[in-house]
Write a sequence for this structure.
């Protein structure tokens, strides 16, 4: 009996029990759907973060406290010895090759009249910040070096802050309340979107001097360095590292290029993909057990049929193939439905978060579901192939 | 001419139960090509057991079985399947048609295992169903057919691969007398075309259609 005939007869028997076939493959459908969906979320996240980071410019380097891969966690409170003087030192010594801006960050509530905006990210940065990281100002201006020197209370606000506090009204020149102190709005940033529920536009930029004074912070979260050309990035990294080493020990800071940041992100998302995919794969195995269960029932139910087929000339291998192919078709069908559902759901979720369905995830989950069919179809198929024809024909 | 089937000193002992049960005792039997034989005997006398051995669905506990001068004890599982497919046609008391499957597909089943092409299968199957007066029932499923019609589909299935021997285990057992007579007239005309037929029955009336009657009692052949 050739593969085509076997497939035809397997399809006939699957279609004869539509409802049961559907319930049988439900486990596989759910497993594949969740694999596709989870992978599309993680790779969407990766695509998004990557584009955000690349949007900052490939010439960017960041200095963060602590050592990545070292004993202490990066940015850990005790580990942080990064000071404003380090940033100033870097700016002076690297002025021929790079632009530098220190940055600190706090969250605080904003007020204007009777309007509130809670949980706003307050970035204290230097006047050089727009030269280091491209900012899209839709109105007004960024603060000047003189304002930063004088710790002037001025603010450039994100679009969410603008609409929460001012709605359609005038915002430039207005004084907003930042954790108790009044800041004058001088500029508005263009929209940048959200990432996993974190609204990047719910933020303001103020002079680092003012922020340090108001919040009593003397440590830095980040020093941003932008090399003047792509060819300089490595040299700038080496020089910055050498300069910082004069005051700090090796595990108190990290100078990281964009390339290194991206590789860390791809490591993290890789681990995430493996973990989530692994969890989803467990449901595929559960689905496979469902298929095995139904195939065993089916072998018992069709014992007479098996006996008859043997009587008219089916070899044990013909019977084995028939049931094996039936299991594989069931799981493959579950895989296809799961892929369609997964892609559909991921497109739907794509309206809110970035999702991308990589081709390899489609191939992987389809292959895996077929494999589940083979693995869990073998036992029932062998049982069917071994049935004694006379006993099978006598079966009630 | 050498016999088609030659059984010598065949014994079949079922030892699954507490006391071993001897279903067949020292059976010697020859079936020549073209013979029409009826095996008659009381329930439990070993008729079906004998037929299953002739049909290569079962193997004797001891003794030898030569089919067309070949020692069947040396055949592999796959070879046995091939012989059942090409040389033997079974007709059962309870028809054993595949449910939810058309007459056409039921009859064509042995041809699928014989790897006959789809167009050839349909041609042969339609011709046979027509000869057996089932032209209009080609696409009917077993549950849409009368008992007599179902048994005629089953006979078509037994004939479709042009076997050497037809083995029928109480083919009229589940049929009314009219349908039973139809089946017997089919067997008689098959006999006229030279087919070898071995048929089991309980009824003397049915056995009369055969040219030779074998009587069985307690696993032994009494008259032959
Ligand atoms: N698989 C088996 N295991 C144990 N004993 C069996 C088995 N098959 C048949 N027998 C026994 O062998 C004997 C012969 O059985 P067989 O089926 O050949 O009788 P039969 O002549 O066909 O009877 P019937 O006319 O009722 O069909 C019976 O006593 C039966 O109980
Ligand atoms: Mg019997």
């Amino acid at each position: 009996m050739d593969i085509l005939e076997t497939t035809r007869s397997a399809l006939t028997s699957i279609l004869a029990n539509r409802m049961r076939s559907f319930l049988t493959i439900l486990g596989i459908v759910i497993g594949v759907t969740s694999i596709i969906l989870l992978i599309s979320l993680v790779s969407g996240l990766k695509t998004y973060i990557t584009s955000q980071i690349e949007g900052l410019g490939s010439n960017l380097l960041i200095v963060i406290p602590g050592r990545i891969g070292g004993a202490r966690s990066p940015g850990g409170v005790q580990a942080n010895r990064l000071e404003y003087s380090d940033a100033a030192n870097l700016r002076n010594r690297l002025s021929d090759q790079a632009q530098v801006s220190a940055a600190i960050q706090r969250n605080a509530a904003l007020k204007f009249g009777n309007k509130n905006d809670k949980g706003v990210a307050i970035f204290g940065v230097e006047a050089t910040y727009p030269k280091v990281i491209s900012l899209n100002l839709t109105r007004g201006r960024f603060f000047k070096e003189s304002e930063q020197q004088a710790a002037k209370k001025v603010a450039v606000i994100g679009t969410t802050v603008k609409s929460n506090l001012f709605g359609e009204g005038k915002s430039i020149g207005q004084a907003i309340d930042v954790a108790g102190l009044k800041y004058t709005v001088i500029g508005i940033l263009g929209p940048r979107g959200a990432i996993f529920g974190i609204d990047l536009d719910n933020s303001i930029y103020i002079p680092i001097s003012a922020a340090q004074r108001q919040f009593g912070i003397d440590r830095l979260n980040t020093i941003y360095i932008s090399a003047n050309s792509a060819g300089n990035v490595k040299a700038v990294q080496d020089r910055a590292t050498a300069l910082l080493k004069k005051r700090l020990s090796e595990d108190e800071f990290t100078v990281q290029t964009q390339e290194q940041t991206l590789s860390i992100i791809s490591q993290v998302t890789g681990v995430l993909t493996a973990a989530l995919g692994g969890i989803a794969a467990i449901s595929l195995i559960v689905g496979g057990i469902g298929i095995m269960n139904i195939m065993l029932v089916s072998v018992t139910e069709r014992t007479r049929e098996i006996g008859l087929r043997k009587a008219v000339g089916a070899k044990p291998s013909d019977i084995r193939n028939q049931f094996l192919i039936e299991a594989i078709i069931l799981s493959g069908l579950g895989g296809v439905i799961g892929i369609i559902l997964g892609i559909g759901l991921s497109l739907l979720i794509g309206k809110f978060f970035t999702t991308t369905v990589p081709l390899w995830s489609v191939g992987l989950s389809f292959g895996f579901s077929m494999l589940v069919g083979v693995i869990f179809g073998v036992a029932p198929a062998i049982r069917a192939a071994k049935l004694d024809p006379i006993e099978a024909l006598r079966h009630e | 001419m050498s016999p088609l089937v030659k059984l010598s000193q065949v014994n079949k002992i079922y030892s699954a139960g507490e006391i071993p049960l001897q279903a067949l005792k020292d059976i010697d039997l020859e079936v020549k090509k073209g013979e029409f034989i009826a095996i008659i005997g009381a329930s439990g006398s070993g008729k079906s057991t004998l037929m299953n051995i002739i049909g290569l669905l079962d193997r004797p506990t001891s003794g030898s079985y030569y089919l067309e001068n070949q020692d069947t004890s040396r055949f592999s599982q796959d070879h046995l399947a091939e012989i059942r497919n090409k040389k033997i046609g079974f007709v059962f008391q309870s028809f054993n048609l595949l449910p939810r499957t058309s007459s056409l597909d039921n009859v064509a089943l042995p041809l699928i295992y014989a790897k006959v092409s789809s167009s050839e299968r349909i041609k042969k199957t339609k011709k046979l169903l027509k000869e057996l007066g089932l032209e209009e029932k080609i696409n009917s499923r077993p549950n849409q057919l009368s008992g007599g019609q179902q048994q005629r589909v089953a006979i078509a299935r037994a004939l479709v691969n042009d076997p050497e021997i037809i083995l029928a285990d109480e083919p009229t057992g589940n049929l009314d007398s009219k349908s039973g007579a139809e089946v017997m007239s089919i067997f008689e005309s098959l006999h006229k075309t030279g087919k070898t037929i071995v048929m089991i029955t309980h009824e003397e009336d049915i056995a009369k259609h055969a040219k030779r009657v074998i009587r069985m009692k307690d696993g032994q052949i009494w008259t032959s």
